[in-house]
Amino acid sequence: MNRNNEPDRAGATRDERLPPVEAVVIFTRVAETGSFTAAARSMGLPLATVSKRVAELEEHLGVTLIARTTRRSSLTEPGKRFLTHGQLIVDALQRAADEAAQAVAEPSGRLRLTMSTVLVEAGLGRLIARFVAANPKLRCEIDVSDRYVDLVAEGYDLAIRVGRLKDSTLIARKIGSTEASMFAAPSLVAERGLPSDPKALDAYPLIGEQISPSDTQQWLLHHATQKPAKIEFKPRMSANNVRAIAEAIEAGLGIGRLPTFVGRRMAEHGLAVPVLPEWAGPGLDISLVYAAHRGMLPGVRLLIDQLSREAGSLLPGHAALAAR
User: Fold this and answer.
1) Cα separation of 301 and 283, whole Å?
2) Kind of pairing, strands 207-208 and 237-238?
3) Pick from 222, 199, 173: nearest CA to 322
4) Is residue 111 exposed (0-12), middle (13-18) or buried (19+ Cβ within 10 Å)?
5) Average pLDDT estimate for 154-167
6) Per-residue pLDDT band at 8 (split at 50, 70, 90)
7) Which parts form a coiled-coil structure per UniProt (predicted)?
């Protein structure tokens, strides 16, 4: 039945009754941009075409998707529900187009990504450099920074992040994890010695890992054959940044926890000493973070796939994941 409750033409098959794809794409863009004019401008279409396609979609579905007045347009309840599915359809179409393009097109254009200094030190920078070298038409910009980067607002294609991720509408893909092990400066060990077990940590200054109104923090330490140990302490210093914790350890301010590969590298250079190496904290996830697939350059998708396959193996003490 159509909007006027008249029977559809006889013999129509199910495929013929599916909503027209172009109309779904245009409706989705109107809903995302907030107006017919903005959607027409972004898609390079005449305003009349955009309005007509949305009206045809509403006619096909038999419901009003967008309530229009002389001043504004807004989604109806059916429109909100349809938008959820429309966005999935558009994303799937874009992914299909990207994958088809990858089969015949060499990755090109500019790729912008951001990651922390500790990941560069772990060797991810070399992995990305090899990827760029293998794709000569691709240009890459890497922001090496420990600050939080807003991918959408600042125009980045990809972020590689360590630890707990903020709630976000972005897509996160875990590519591995690393233990959090304890380390201290050689000067602190020379002065106080090494603790014999987790309970002995009470006699040492400890470095916290979070900024909190509370005076106390907790570490949960795991052992291969013993029960977990919970350590409550008032930190001598706290920082929510791996590099800052590493520098506090190096300065002798206390025992701190670091991703194992970071602490081991410091130990190799004589800057830190492992503390109770058989005890480790919960693993820190290493994740790729990026916006929706829609509009993603083939080069970005290829880099995501390569990092998913190879990044975990670069991290000592890691637990790598198979590429998914």
Assistant:
1) 26
2) parallel
3) 173
4) buried
5) 80
6) very low
7) none
Please say whether the beta carbons of 54 and 65 come within 8 A.
yes
Question: Would you state the structure tokens that stand for residue 238, as one six-digit string?
Answer: 């706290």
Residue 207 and residue 318 in contact, taking contact as beta carbons nearer than 8 Å: no
Amino acid at 106: E
pLDDT in tens, 252-273: 999 999 988 889 889 999 999 9
Give SS3 for 324.
coil
Look at the pTM and tell me if it is higher than 0.85.
no
Residues with Cβ within 8 Å of residue 272, at least 6 apart in sequence: 183, 184, 185, 186, 246, 249, 250, 263, 266
Between CA 129 and CA 144 the distance in angstroms is: 14
Residue among 170, 145, 42, 157 nearest 110 (CA): 157
Extract the tokens encoding 140: 């890459």
Task: Give CA 10 to chain center in angstroms.
Answer: 50
DSSP 166: P
With contact defined as beta carbons under 8 Å apart, do 319 and 116 qualify? no
Burial class, 185, CB count within 10 angstroms (exposed 0-12 / middle 13-18 / buried 19+): buried
CB 160 within 8 A of CB 306: no
> How confident is the model over 102-114, as pLDDT tens digits?
655 677 888 999 9
Structure tokens at 184: 């201290």
Average the pLDDT over 47-60 and give the result. 94
Q: How far apart are CA 149 and CA 144, in angstroms?
A: 11
Cβ atoms of residues 235 and 244 within 8 Å: no
